[in-house]
């Protein structure tokens, strides 16, 4: 009636509701259903405080959280508009969008900034109401704020400088996934099978990338394949930067990257180590210790730092190993050089490398009787988690994200 009256007064007929407005009204109704206790625009403040569990600090008013969200929609006009309208109705900002065409469907990948009170199920439910299927949500961090071209160029640059960067670069390119280098004979073009990618490893064998529950798209396969081909064209690369490490008694040693070219020197160091030292490091028969070195020194499985004496002998090794989507740190210091701060210095450097590579944590496995390694982990000054089982201790240090340059 009000519209008819206004139309008569102005001499114009009231315009019918536009499809976009209908979608927006429907989306707002959907958000009210998902957040019934919240204000229509932003569900923070008193509603959030009332809903917080005992002892849990409520999110401050106006707080926002970053999310990575995937949803599959039909490839038809208006499908993306309905999804964006649903997000806008919940005061959710779309910071970035990537599309992965799949014929009659498209996978839309969003970087979102949402009110902190919204949970994964709230986002997934609203997108499902807007026509999205196979919705997957995970929390994002500051690294995801870098725009996609800059991020890809950064990954390519890091890969060009260091062979050990390829597994990390693939992980950063494809999101949360497990990456393994295994023996195999994958064809040059690689294979894509649902939640698994297989790519020829430039170092030999194949690289297996697995991501539970979220299938890879042909677009992601093409990106990963291009990065592996780029790595293969450059050959083996190990940065040759060296650092001087001053020891308490006034001696100085050199810390540098190591690779398979250091195998002979590492074997010689093994020969100078006691059975007790080798046993604490490898947790198995001492006679098998030498057989592990070639794998440990390969840049495909992680990074190795070597400590070299003034006489040119290796006296310590620190390994940062890519273990699926986790990262392990391991140390070996020759007996005559122990208790001089070398292990602590190596572990700090390995932790910094892990942080720069986007790793969220680093763990060390040691014997319960190896109080020196536990103390070295505690010396990092980071939050630690301890797991003890049958005389073995796993100490995990949580890492703070490295600073991200503004863009």
Automatic annotation (TrEMBL):
Coiled coil: none
Residue intervals of the ACT domain: 68-142
Claim: Transferase is one of the keywords in the record: yes
Keywords: Transferase
CDD domains cross-referenced by the UniProt entry: ACT, NAT_SF
PROSITE patterns in alphabetical order: ACT (PS51671), GNAT (PS51186)
Family annotation (InterPro entries): ACT_dom, Acyl_CoA_acyltransferase, GNAT_dom
Region (Disordered) residue spans: 1-21
Keyword Protein transport: no
Cited Pfam families: Acetyltransf_1
Residues covered by the N-acetyltransferase domain: 253-406
Membrane spanning stretches: none
Superkingdom assignment: Bacteria
Signal sequence, start to end: none
GO molecular function: acyltransferase activity, transferring groups other than amino-acyl groups
Name this polypeptide is given: GNAT family N-acetyltransferase
């Amino acid at each position: 009636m009000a519209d008819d009256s206004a139309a008569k007064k102005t001499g114009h007929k009231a315009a019918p509701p536009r499809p976009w407005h209908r979608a927006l009204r429907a989306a707002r109704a959907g958000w009210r259903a998902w957040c019934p206790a919240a204000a229509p625009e932003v569900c923070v403040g008193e509603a959030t405080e009332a809903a917080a569990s005992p002892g849990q600090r409520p999110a401050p008013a106006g707080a926002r959280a970053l999310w990575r969200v995937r949803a599959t929609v039909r490839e038809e006009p208006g499908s993306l508009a309905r999804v964006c309208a649903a997000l806008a109705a919940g005061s959710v900002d779309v910071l970035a969008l990537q599309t992965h065409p799949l014929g009659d469907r498209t996978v839309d990948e969003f970087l979102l900034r949402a009110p902190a009170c919204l949970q994964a199920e709230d986002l997934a439910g609203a997108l499902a109401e807007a026509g999205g299927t196979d919705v997957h949500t995970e929390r994002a961090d500051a690294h995801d704020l870098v725009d996609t071209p800059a991020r890809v160029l950064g990954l390519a640059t890091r890969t060009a400088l260091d062979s050990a960067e390829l597994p990390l670069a693939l992980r950063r390119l494809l999101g949360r996934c497990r990456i393994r280098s295994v023996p195999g004979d994958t064809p040059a073009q690689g294979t894509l099978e649902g939640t698994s990618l297989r790519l020829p490893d430039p170092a030999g064998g194949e690289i297996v990338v697995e991501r539970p529950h979220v299938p890879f798209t042909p677009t992601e396969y093409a990106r990963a394949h291009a990065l592996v081909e780029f790595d293969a064209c450059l050959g083996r690369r190990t940065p040759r930067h060296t650092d001087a490490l001053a020891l308490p008694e006034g001696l100085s040693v050199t810390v540098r990257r190591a690779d398979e070219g250091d195998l002979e020197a590492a074997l010689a160091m093994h020969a100078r180590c006691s059975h007790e030292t080798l046993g604490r490091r490898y947790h198995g028969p001492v006679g098998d210790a030498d057989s592990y070195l070639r794998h440990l020194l390969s840049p495909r499985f992680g990074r190795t730092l070597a400590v070299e004496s003034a006489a040119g002998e290796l006296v310590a090794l620190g390994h940062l190993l890519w273990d699926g989507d986790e990262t392990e740190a391991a140390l070996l210091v020759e007996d005559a050089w122990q208790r001089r701060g070398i292990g602590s210095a190596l572990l700090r450097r390995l932790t910094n490398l892990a942080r720069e590579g986007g790793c969220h944590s680093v763990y060390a496995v040691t014997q319960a009787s190896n109080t020196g390694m536990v103390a070295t982990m505690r010396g990092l000054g980071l939050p630690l988690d301890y797991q003890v089982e049958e005389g073995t201790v796993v100490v995990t240090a949580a890492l703070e994200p490295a600073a991200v340059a503004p863009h």
